[in-house]
Design goal:
alpha/beta; TIM Barrel; 10 helices; single chain; globular; 267 residues; eight-stranded parallel beta sheet; binds nickel (II) ion
């Protein structure tokens, strides 16, 4: 039986307000047996806790996205801000990661020092809680690698979600013990760079993700994404690697279980 582990989605997003329950109720019938809902700011981290309370096959990550770190800064007390995340992370055994955290230099008005500060602080939080991290990094490969090395992120572990860099960078992340998150972009007509990374990366270091509601696969590009489209990603990985799609599902399931440290405590 096919069992799919969706390692990165945002089902608290407004895009799902109209049909959230119906959609999630359809998951197991479509092979989606585990979902990690990812926080991006304080509110969505809180909403993630509500979702994992409601659905026993949902796991959660709490954390603040580099483009949303103002919500931490506004608290005006760094320790208090981190304590809010810590309390959320400790509130359930099914919070399995800190994320998404990282650097995003895509927009011109980016406050790089502020992003770095909260990236480092949230890496520290993950270390303290012994949780892996879900890293969001866009247009910021060199600084991400520098900070991760400096913070000894290899001891923390986790995933480079929605991987968008070169094979050369992937080697560095893989050497640090990180997994590579692969989603709809691998099916894009201009997804050649990610295809090369998938070619290079051993299957036992890849996890499946969607980043729903964003980044729907080529056939649905621009439309709302959901975990139901993971087969497009898995089939593309199977094609690249010349293996069966079942092998992709089985191996990536085991990878996700290992990466998020899912066991009798929180299964
Ligand atoms: Ni995301």
């Amino acid at each position: 039986m096919v069992k799919i582990f969706e390692t990165h989605a945002h089902y608290d997003d407004d895009a799902f307000d109209g049909d959230r329950e119906t959609l999630i109720d359809s998951f197991k019938g479509n092979g989606i047996y585990a979902v990690t809902n990812i926080g991006a700011d304080l509110k969505s981290s809180q909403n993630t806790l509500e979702l994992i309370k409601k659905y026993d096959f949902f796991y959660g990550a709490v954390g603040v996205h580099p483009s949303d770190v103002d919500c931490l800064e506004e608290i005006g007390d760094d320790e208090k801000a981190i304590k809010l995340l810590l309390d959320m992370a400790e509130s359930s055994e099914r919070v399995v990661a800190i994320g998404e955290i990282g650097l995003d230099y895509h927009y011109e008005d980016t406050d790089k020092p502020l992003q770095e500060k909260w990236f480092r602080k949230q890496l520290g939080l993950a270390r303290r809680l012994k949780l892996p991290v879900v890293i969001h990094s866009r247009d910021a490969a060199a600084d991400t690698i520098d900070i991760m090395k400096d913070e000894k992120a290899g001891e923390i572990g986790g995933v480079i979600h929605c991987y968008s860099y070169s094979v050369e960078s992937a080697k560095i992340f893989l050497n640090m013990g990180f997994y590579i998150g692969v989603g709809g972009v691998v099916t894009f007509k201009n997804g050649r760079k990610l295809v090369e990374t998938v070619e290079y990366t051993p299957l036992d270091r890849i996890v499946l993700e969607t980043d729903s509601p964003y980044l729907a696969p080529q056939d649905y590009r621009g439309k709302r994404n959901s975990s139901l489209y993971i087969p497009y990603v898995a089939e593309k990985i199977a094609e690249i690697k010349g293996i069966s799609v079942d092998e992709v599902y089985e191996t990536t399931w085991n990878n996700a279980v290992k990466m998020y440290n899912i066991n009798s405590r929180n299964a």
